[in-house]
Amino acid sequence: MEFTHFDNQGNAIMVDVGAKAETMREAIAVGKIKVSPDCYQAIIGGTAKKGDVLGVARVAGIMATKRTSDLIPLCHPLMITKAEIQFVLHPESSEIEARCTVRCSGQTGVEMEALTGASVCLLTIYDMCKAIDRAMEITAVYLQEKSGGKSGHFVNEVHL
Amino acid sequence: MEFTHFDNQGNAIMVDVGAKAETMREAIAVGKIKVSPDCYQAIIGGTAKKGDVLGVARVAGIMATKRTSDLIPLCHPLMITKAEIQFVLHPESSEIEARCTVRCSGQTGVEMEALTGASVCLLTIYDMCKAIDRAMEITAVYLQEKSGGKSGHFVNEVHL
Amino acid sequence: MEFTHFDNQGNAIMVDVGAKAETMREAIAVGKIKVSPDCYQAIIGGTAKKGDVLGVARVAGIMATKRTSDLIPLCHPLMITKAEIQFVLHPESSEIEARCTVRCSGQTGVEMEALTGASVCLLTIYDMCKAIDRAMEITAVYLQEKSGGKSGHFVNEVHL
Amino acid sequence: MEFTHFDNQGNAIMVDVGAKAETMREAIAVGKIKVSPDCYQAIIGGTAKKGDVLGVARVAGIMATKRTSDLIPLCHPLMITKAEIQFVLHPESSEIEARCTVRCSGQTGVEMEALTGASVCLLTIYDMCKAIDRAMEITAVYLQEKSGGKSGHFVNEVHL
Amino acid sequence: MEFTHFDNQGNAIMVDVGAKAETMREAIAVGKIKVSPDCYQAIIGGTAKKGDVLGVARVAGIMATKRTSDLIPLCHPLMITKAEIQFVLHPESSEIEARCTVRCSGQTGVEMEALTGASVCLLTIYDMCKAIDRAMEITAVYLQEKSGGKSGHFVNEVHL
Amino acid sequence: MEFTHFDNQGNAIMVDVGAKAETMREAIAVGKIKVSPDCYQAIIGGTAKKGDVLGVARVAGIMATKRTSDLIPLCHPLMITKAEIQFVLHPESSEIEARCTVRCSGQTGVEMEALTGASVCLLTIYDMCKAIDRAMEITAVYLQEKSGGKSGHFVNEVHL
Q: Which end of chain E is more exposed for a tag (fewer CB within 10 A), N or C?
């Protein structure tokens, strides 16, 4: 079991993916933010009048998928061909779940793009709600599924 | 209970903080990544030879605190005067905890900077370990403490 | 009549504002995009179901105010304390007008931030509507008003 | 008539272009800035001694074409293979016209890159001249021509 | 003799400058690029017709001073109040020398901004001339002088 | 002998590489920083306790390769497939040499990416050591080797 992001002297490198095949790749990452019941109602009741927290957070998440290689040091730049964020609401637990799907045709996967998109989306919800609730918590950010590349289709079985 | 990031028509705005006092502000955010026991050993055993995952992740997290207002749409630009990331190891649960502390003298708090630093730090660990373990999960990202500004000292009591 | 962005050899410089007083500064810039009547209806009818073009464009414009000194070579970095974008609708001419207001306390004005915010907001409307209408046109982007600093209050009289 | 930047629930998405053919694409965008006659003379008389406003603005516009997907939320990242800006002078009306041409081989067009390049170029002229003339106005920013992709050759007939 | 960019466990940190006095700070950094005699002539002969290599490089250097804290991991963000680049020509050795002066009022110095500005300026000359000369060399990049802050006035004596 | 980064009127352009073949390209750039003997010992003795200057500088250099087209005005954006930085130590002269290797499959070379990576790596060493030694000097930054593209294999003979 070895890290691929270090050379054989242990130095961090951006690994060479130049010999890998260019295939269609997709990744779906998810994550949740747990808020107070009052805050949950304020978010969900978002209308044009009250402010569209989820709409702003969606834009932030999509934009963040494009900044991934600026943020994650050893991540390759990629030409994303699709990015979207869907929200799943959990009223019973006052949680908002963000699901970020990213696609590209490239030599390496888009897991980090999807995870970064979900994370920044949730951080944006935090930012917009922090005047109401300071004890919010971001939880369960993980890769749910990926396809494309040599390693093939992966589904996160821990969360099935 | 009202959002401060919308005007009275519900339009997203970057709120005016120009009238707020400039005070010394600090925020501490934490977050964890749960990895497999094998992956945990590989990270913790990181020496110059095997690759310093946490060293790279720390740099990524510190750099991300400086990009916060680029990522979070309604976040004000701030002149951070300090940023640091400390790791707390949880061998019993194979978790790495990142604690990001940010300070600035300004008119608005640095919660988002600390949360963004912790999040990008954990995403970087994910990136460097994903060849070993694809079922990692980022959890419990929250604001632990903040001080400065009108609202005074806040300690997250949920997590005491 | 001399440019201030060049030294006396004609070399471009970021002029020294270090000796200028730090005052509260505000600028309001406006701009319009003219679209086809059908496109106008599609934008204005934007609801959660049909897609909120103006909501996305507003976020883009606000974020762009923070990137101004990255884009405009000789523009000073500034700590914006407020940014907002309001839309004025002109159904008779199928035009959407964006008004971007920016404030900061600093040694130089925020005209460029307001103009950049309005411009990127209008470009984002263009982007989201270009599948419907390719002959849109951005017009009348100018500084409407500014205050603060040695030169005092300015109101664009051409457009009164 | 439907927007392509929203899914069928009306949520903003970066649309999937992964199935589109990779073709050579070109776009030409134009835009003008109207300045006072005195300011026009100062710009046009730009020599090494007096300061090369248009030279700086050209560089800014070219660099901005590369930042387009950072600025426009739902715009795909693209590998631009050419960017240039030409100026057309209109002494009779004291207007400077910027024409930005962008090319790439990709799955989606470069209209937004050309429009962003022209806009930032004009904003830079504004910035460098604002000490002389505060009533300048950016006008007539539009797509003049595009080629490549499924929709083929487009020429803006409104402006012929 | 101890590094200030590590805590007492040796972890990289962005050091706390919050307690330092805000003073006017200036730094001057220099650097040279050695080119072939033919290339030198081509650069120096740069007129509007032949292309203004130094003009483009100056703009790039000034813009880079504003990106310093994005590039240098532990560098504090700063509000630069002045940035300029002057060229000193060395025809006898076919060298172009760039001198970058940066000023700000802040709690930490602007050495890195001046050094980054000079370096990116020289890299831009390299980029524009590499079709003519591939054996160019950037040399003698150092801090020539700085003032402000607790450590007072520094002049690089090695190079007097 | 003509510059390729200007059109025939002498205007700066990002040259059209759309017709060039996509080939595997590699570039190796080197550069050195000369520090005082005491500073050299402090860097080389870097352990987890004392702080890993070279580890942080390596990360900064790798990240900078990805920002090259943001910094260098007429540089094309490229999809880097590999980036690494190796250090060669010169104890006799108290110099640290950084060697940056970059690869991509593209229509234009990666010289600027390698040179930018080496430069930012050395600037980061400077930043981390400037509290110990202010007279450091960056020297001998040049392209050592490149391959791929029409011009074929280049080795810098000046430095053999």
A: C
Q: Is D7 a catalytic residue?
A: no
pLDDT tens sequence across B114-134: 999 999 999 999 999 999 998
**Which of F76, F82, F109 shows the shortest CA–CA distance to F5?**
F76
- Sequence-ordered alpha helix ranges (H) in chain C: 37-44, 53-65, 68-71, 111-129
d(C-alpha D4, C-alpha C125), whole Å: 12
Residue B84 and residue E17: Cβ atoms within 8 Å?
Answer: no
Count of residues in chain C: 160
Residue in E closest to D52 by C-alpha: E55
Tens of pLDDT, residues C16-59: 998 898 899 999 999 999 999 999 999 998 654 557 899 999 99
Using CB atoms, list chains with 3+ pairs below 8 Å to chain D: A, C, E, F
CA distance D10 to chain F (A): 32
From CA D117, how far away is CA D67, in angstroms rounded? 9
The predicted-structure confidence for A39-68, as pLDDT tens digits, reads as follows: 999 999 865 455 789 999 999 999 999 999
Sign, CA dihedral B144-B150-B151-B153, equals positive
- Residues C84 and C67: their CA atoms lie apart, in Å, by 15
What CA–CA distance (Å, rounded) separates B124 from B61? 8
Min Cα–Cα distance to chain D from A150, Å:
19
Is there a contact between A72 and B10 if contact means CB atoms under 8 Å apart? no
Listed in sequence order, the residues at least 6 apart from D68 whose beta carbon sits closer than 8 Å to its beta carbon are D75, D78, D112, D113, D116, D117
Partner-chain residue, chosen from A52, A60, A63, that has the shortest CB–CB distance to C55: A52
Tell me, yes or no, if C100 comes closer than 8 A to chain D by beta carbon.
Answer: no
Note the residue count of chain B.
160
In angstroms, the Cα distances linking C134 to C81, C91, C125, D144, E55 are: 36, 19, 12, 9, 36
Residues of C in contact with B74 (CB under 8 A): 62
E8-32 confidence digits (pLDDT tens): 888 999 999 988 988 999 999 999 9
Task: Tell if the CB–CB gap between A74 and B56 is shorter than 8 Å.
Answer: yes
Give the residue-averaged pLDDT of F98-114.
95
Instruction: Choose, from C16, C38, C127, C133, the residue flagged as catalytic.
Output: C127
pLDDT at C53: 94
Min Cα–Cα distance to chain D from E139, Å: 26
B97: Cα within 13 Å, side-chain hemisphere:
14
Could you give the CA distance from residue A35 to residue A127 in angstroms, rounded to a whole number? 12
Name every residue whose Cβ is closer than 8 Å to that of residue B38 and which is 6 or more positions away in sequence.
Answer: A1, B132, B133
Q: Which ipTM score applies to this complex?
A: 0.96
CB contact at 8 A, C93 and C34: yes
For the entire predicted model, the pTM comes to 0.96
pLDDT, position F158: 82
Those residues whose C-beta lies under 8 Å from the C-beta of residue D145, and which sit 6 or more positions away, are D26, D27, D28, D153, D154, D155, D156
Which residue among F12, F73, F107 places its CB closest to the CB of D81? F107
Distance from E56 to chain D by nearest Cα, in Å? 7
Contacting residues of B for A140, CB less than 8 Å apart? 137-139
The number of C-beta contacts closer than 8 angstroms across B and E is 51
Distance, CA of B99 to CA of B114 (rounded, Å): 8
* F55 touches B at CB < 8 Å: yes
Give the nearest chain E residue to B67 (CA atoms): E70
CA proximity to F136, closest of F144, F126, F128, F150? F126
Among B52, B70, B127, B133, the active-site one is B127
DSSP for residue D76: P
Would you state the structure tokens that stand for residue C127, as one six-digit string?
């982007």
Q: How far apart are CA B49 and CA C113, in angstroms?
A: 48
